Amino acid sequence: MKIIIINGPNLNLLGKREPTIYGNSTFEDYFKTLKSKFNEVELFYFQSNIEGEIIDKLHEVGFSYDGIILNAAAYTHTSVGIGDAVKGIETPVIEVHISNIHAREEFRHNSFIAPNAAGIIVGFGLKGYELAIQSFL
Fold first, then answer.
1. Residue 77 marked as a ligand binder
2. Alpha-carbon distance 109 to 9, whole Å?
3. What angle do CA 133, 42, 21 make, to 5 degrees?
4. C or N: which end of the chain has fewer Cβ atoms within 10 Å?
């Protein structure tokens, strides 16, 4: 089974950015833990701060992988293009957010990804990625 985690803008700052919301761990360190815990799964990771690169990656893997875990971060609430990319691919997508987006600013309550996602996991911290992997298994 091949699963990719795609993270959007500013998630490269995990471990440094607002640790009270996002924690103290870098995603790279957490990804090593995921790979160890789910060693029966081929896990891949991609992060970009650039909307078009995220769309290109969805196009690249969206017909050949078994699952996509997408935390589009702020693009969740602004990118019709990423929403359309999720709609246009065959691979199921689980939308993940580290924080509870519904307990934050009102503009974060809208998702252009959600209507085309297989599921949504919010508010469980980094554990949300693990829950998403388990949903594919």
1. yes
2. 17
3. 40
4. C
Domains and CATH numbers, the chain: 2-136 (3.40.50.9100)
User: Is 110 within any annotated ligand binding site?
Assistant: no
pTM of the model: 0.92
Q: Are 123 and 28 in contact (CB under 8 A)?
A: no
Which residues are annotated as catalytic?
22, 97
Amino acid of residue 135:
S
Write the pLDDT tens digit of every residue in 44-95.
999 999 999 999 999 999 999 999 999 999 899 899 999 999 999 999 999 9
Q: Please tell me the total number of residues recorded for the chain in this structure.
A: 137
pLDDT of residue 106: 78
Sign of the four-CA dihedral 60, 47, 93, 130: positive
**Torsion, CA 47, CA 34, CA 40, CA 71, rounded to 10:** -40
